[in-house]
């Protein structure tokens, strides 16, 4: 009979109530209660017992009882109190860990005497004591040492607790020594995996334990040897891990149960997962922007669009043994130009068996709508939401022929591997999923250097090496220096001629810098190196063979392709520096694209802070990068007491973080705001504000002059220009219609009176339209005054009050084309090529979709509106 499966409450996050519910939902029949969880709970031990009974959970053990044996005076009064708690909980075993106290005496006879006394008292209550050797114990660190003490104590209520972590991480004796321990003297067994890290056992054990199958320990062998002793008690998980202690306890409990079921399967020699025969297909979710880009590179590589799904907007692209599905259904993210890997399918010798196994291992089964004549495809969700299908060959019949025959270039022979990026929280979940559900064998985790911090990568393959999946994460991504490509994914195609593939990719090929090849000079013959340099081919070799590979440009926001040529028995995925080289090359390509948009009517876009004022400056930069802006405008001074204030000029940490984000994304600061100088204002009060703008690389300063005295405001404006000029800043005067500088005519008088070379005028389309200024006046002004424009639309009806005007300006602007402003007419009156700063605050829309999505919608709508007619080119 298989052992009962338990989980310690120490494995899960949340309150005790949360942990019990999660354990029960995941299918556990029993638990260990960690003392801290009970202490923090408002439930009494009797209430905990009743709640567990209601959930179908037994309480098998209570832990830990620390620093008892070998102490100068054993605290039996404290022990009796613990026994009271066990009785109220209905738990049968108290787990006693070897003493850590510096006061403990190194005397095994004394330890045995103390444990014997404890066992006598436990037996009187019908309880048992399980003694555990901790790898960091003061004197007892190994299970054989603990067994020697238990034997000396010689009491039937005293036995061992064996913990795989302490036994495998602490060097406390070979597992072969278990043959000397009778199974009936093993009272409890705890399981935990762990990575191989150069770290003391104490730190490893309190921060980095993993569920079975996620780490490097041979837990199959451990459980096998424990069961050979005759042990028939439960197997309990005790996994203390910083990630799991912050994760949803329900997901962690599911992972815990999945890991135990997979371990139980391997330890008992049950049938393995059905054999896999390769990647059946990989599915990409695309839209009207990213779809043609992906199709173009597939076509360049010799793929043909051979099929169209009977009932779904999905295309089948084929070449050799590689199959890609392009799913044109609306993406849930709504991110225009986005492409993502939404599903991968494996060919299984027994698709139904694979699906049953996945369901038994608690993988969420995904519903799928299909017509009666379509294949019955079973799929489950991986931890990151990717759909995983188990297929035979019948699914191909769901695609109607397009009439386009497969091409015979022979460039691509199949799918070599699929690479996914997981969050640091999901990385171990994903490793366990592919190991347990698909029966794949993960390699050890490898650390790779990269421009933005270390990358952890772990590859998994099926036993026949027909399915390869690599998982990547950035484990220390806690700061702000990071690429703007979130969770990149790629598909690697196999080929027998990587150079022909590189040539076929043409402009889609990712160019690799010459320094990379200079570094290879000593390893390769000059003709080979010259050909690799010409075609941007990367190289690696191991004892089995060689690996030549190329990458594509980024397609959409996160997808790219790799083409690989393996020779001999090469089993890896490229040299350790290839990821860093690729990331740097992709970043250069993205930044170049950000600065170059073909076409005669090219305009750069800036994200004005008022459009997404709830975002901090680093968040605004990130939103701009994701949506395709080149610039941001940063609001350094608040206009109203109610609005969020981001004090860049006086907060060094915020300034540093913002500068790092700017450097990482390539976004630039176009302008800063707002120098609002009224009757009592002093331009020198804005000197630190101006210096902060210069530090950020800003080019322009927005000012307003709500002052009825013309001479005074003109003089102060001139002084502000004089302060800004040495910092390389222009001062651009904005004229809201409700201020004392309310229109184009008054602003023009100020600029002419000031006579400053760095003076400028900011045309905000809303303010211009509401001020009654004329386009004829605008066209007549000096072109050098205009450095950028604030673009928006607004309702056609003009509010009758000042309060209404202000409310519209701050909360109810519209995307161009949605209101009554003559957007094209005003922009046509301005110089060609100036940046368009989108200042489109819309409080209701931001509340509905969020500030980042609002920023993306703003640039998408503006581009769409302006593309329908010629504008200021």
Automatic annotation (TrEMBL):
Taxonomic placement: Bacteria, Bacillati, Actinomycetota, Actinomycetes, Streptosporangiales
E.C. code: 4.2.1.118
Entry keyword set: Dioxygenase, Lyase, Metal-binding, Oxidoreductase, Pyruvate
Family listed: Belongs to the bacterial two-domain DSD family.
Domain VOC per the UniProt entry, residue ranges: 414-553
List of residues binding Mg(2+): 417, 490, 562
Organism listed in the record: Nonomuraea soli
Cofactor(s) demanded: a divalent metal cation
SUPFAM superfamilies tied to this protein: Glyoxalase/Bleomycin resistance protein/Dihydroxybiphenyl dioxygenase (SSF54593), Xylose isomerase-like (SSF51658)
Protein name according to UniProt: 3-dehydroshikimate dehydratase
Database matches in InterPro entries: DSD, Glyas_Bleomycin-R_OHBP_Dase, Glyas_Fos-R_dOase_dom, IolE/XylAMocC-like, VOC_core, Xyl_isomerase-like_sf, Xyl_isomerase-like_TIM-brl
Binding site for a divalent metal cation: 132, 163, 190, 238
Annotated catalysed reactions: 3-dehydroshikimate = 3,4-dihydroxybenzoate + H2O
Molecular function terms, GO-annotated: 3-dehydroshikimate dehydratase activity; dioxygenase activity; metal ion binding
Listed pathway(s): Aromatic compound metabolism; 3,4-dihydroxybenzoate biosynthesis
Biological-process GO terms, alphabetical: 3,4-dihydroxybenzoate biosynthetic process
Entries under Gene3D superfamilies matching the protein: 2,3-Dihydroxybiphenyl 1,2-Dioxygenase, domain 1 (3.10.180.10), Divalent-metal-dependent TIM barrel enzymes (3.20.20.150)
């Amino acid at each position: 009979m298989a052992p009962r499966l338990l989980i310690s409450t120490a494995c899960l996050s949340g309150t005790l109530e949360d942990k019990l519910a999660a354990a029960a939902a995941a299918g556990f029949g029993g638990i260990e209660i960690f003392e801290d969880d009970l202490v923090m709970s408002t439930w009494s031990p009797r209430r905990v017992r009743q709640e567990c009974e209601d959930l179908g959970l037994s309480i098998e053990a209570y832990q830990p009882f620390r620093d008892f044996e070998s102490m100068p005076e054993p605290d039996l009064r404290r022990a009796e109190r613990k026994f009271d708690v066990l009785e109220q909980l209905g738990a049968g075993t108290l787990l006693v860990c070897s003493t850590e106290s510096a006061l403990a005496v190194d005397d095994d006879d004394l330890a045995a005497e103390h444990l014997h006394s404890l066992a006598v008292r436990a037996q009187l209550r019908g309880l048992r004591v399980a003694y555990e050797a901790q790898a960091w114990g003061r004197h007892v660190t190994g299970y054989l040492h603990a067994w020697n003490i238990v034997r000396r104590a010689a009491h039937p209520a005293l036995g061992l607790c064996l913990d795989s972590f302490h036994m495998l991480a602490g060097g406390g004796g070979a597992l072969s020594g278990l043959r000397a321990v009778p199974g009936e003297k093993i009272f409890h067994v705890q399981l935990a995996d762990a990575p191989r890290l150069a770290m003391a056992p104490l730190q490893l054990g309190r921060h980095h334990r993993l569920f079975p199958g996620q780490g490097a320990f041979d837990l199959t062998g451990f459980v096998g040897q424990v069961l050979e002793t005759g042990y028939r008690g439960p197997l309990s998980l005790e996994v203390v891990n910083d990630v799991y202690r912050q994760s949803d306890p329900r997901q962690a409990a599911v992972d815990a149960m999945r890991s135990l079921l997979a371990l139980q399967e391997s330890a008992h020699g049950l049938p393995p997962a059905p054999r896999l025969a390769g990647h059946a297909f990989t599915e990409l979710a695309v839209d009207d922007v990213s779809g043609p880009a992906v199709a173009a590179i597939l076509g360049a590589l010799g793929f043909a669009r051979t099929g169209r799904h009977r009932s779904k907007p999905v295309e089948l692209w084929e070449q050799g043994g590689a199959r890609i599905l392009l799913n044109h259904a609306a993406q849930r993210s709504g991110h225009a130009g986005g492409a993502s890997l939404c599903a991968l399918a494996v060919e299984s010798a027994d698709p139904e068996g694979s699906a049953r196994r996945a369901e038994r291992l608690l993988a969420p089964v995904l519903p799928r709508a299909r017509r009666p004549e379509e294949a019955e495809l079973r799929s489950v969700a991986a931890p990151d939401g990717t759909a995983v299908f188990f297929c035979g060959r019948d699914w191909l019949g769901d695609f109607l022929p397009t009439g386009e025959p497969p091409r015979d270039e022979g460039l691509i022979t199949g799918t070599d591997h699929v690479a996914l990026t997981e969050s640091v929280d999901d990385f171990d979940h994903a490793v366990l999923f592919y190991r347990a559900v698909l029966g794949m064998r993960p390699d050890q985790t490898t650390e790779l250097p990269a421009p933005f911090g270390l990358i952890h990568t772990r590859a998994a393959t099926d036993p026949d090496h027909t399915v390869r999946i690599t998982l990547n994460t950035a484990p220390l991504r806690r700061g702000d220096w990071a690429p703007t490509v979130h969770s990149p994914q790629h598909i690697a195609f196999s080929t027998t001629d990587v150079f022909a593939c590189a040539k076929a990719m043409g402009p889609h090929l990712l160019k690799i810098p010459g320094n990379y090849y200079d570094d290879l000079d000593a390893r390769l013959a000059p003709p080979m190196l010259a050909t690799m340099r010409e075609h941007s081919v990367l190289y690696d070799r191991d004892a089995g063979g060689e690996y030549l590979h190329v990458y594509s440009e980024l397609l959409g926001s996160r997808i790219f392709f790799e083409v690989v040529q393996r020779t001999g028995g090469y089993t890896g995925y490229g040299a350790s520096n290839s990821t860093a080289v690729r990331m740097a090359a992709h970043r250069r390509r993205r930044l170049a694209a950000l600065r170059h948009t073909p076409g005669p009517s090219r305009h750069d876009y800036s994200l004005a802070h008022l459009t997404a004022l709830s975002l901090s400056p680093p968040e605004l930069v990130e939103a701009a990068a994701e949506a395709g802006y080149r610039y941001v405008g940063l609001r350094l001074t608040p206009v109203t007491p109610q609005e969020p204030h981001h004090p860049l000029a006086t907060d060094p940490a915020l300034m540093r973080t913002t500068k790092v984000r700017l450097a990482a994304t390539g976004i630039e600061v176009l302008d800063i705001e707002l120098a609002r100088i009224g009757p009592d204002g002093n331009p020198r009060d804005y000197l630190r504000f101006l210096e902060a703008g210069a530090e950020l690389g800003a080019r322009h300063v927005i000012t307003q002059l709500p002052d009825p005295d013309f001479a005074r405001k003109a003089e102060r404006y001139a002084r502000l220009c004089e302060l800004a000029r040495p910092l390389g800043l222009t001062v651009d005067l904005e004229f809201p219609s409700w201020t004392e500088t309310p229109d184009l005519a008054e602003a023009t008088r100020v600029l002419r009176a000031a006579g400053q070379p760095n003076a400028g005028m900011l045309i905000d389309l809303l303010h211009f339209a509401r001020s009654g200024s004329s386009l004829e006046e605008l066209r007549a002004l000096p072109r050098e005054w205009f450095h950028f424009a604030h673009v928006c639309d607004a309702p056609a009806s003009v509010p009758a009050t000042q309060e209404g005007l202000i409310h519209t300006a701050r909360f109810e602007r519209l995307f161009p084309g949605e209101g009554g402003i003559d957007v094209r007419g005003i922009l046509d009156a301005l110089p060609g090529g100036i940046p368009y700063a989108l200042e489109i605050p819309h409080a209701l829309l931001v509340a509905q979709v969020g500030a980042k999505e609002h920023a993306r919608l703003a640039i998408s709508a503006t581009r769409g509106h302006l593309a329908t007619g010629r504008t200021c080119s």
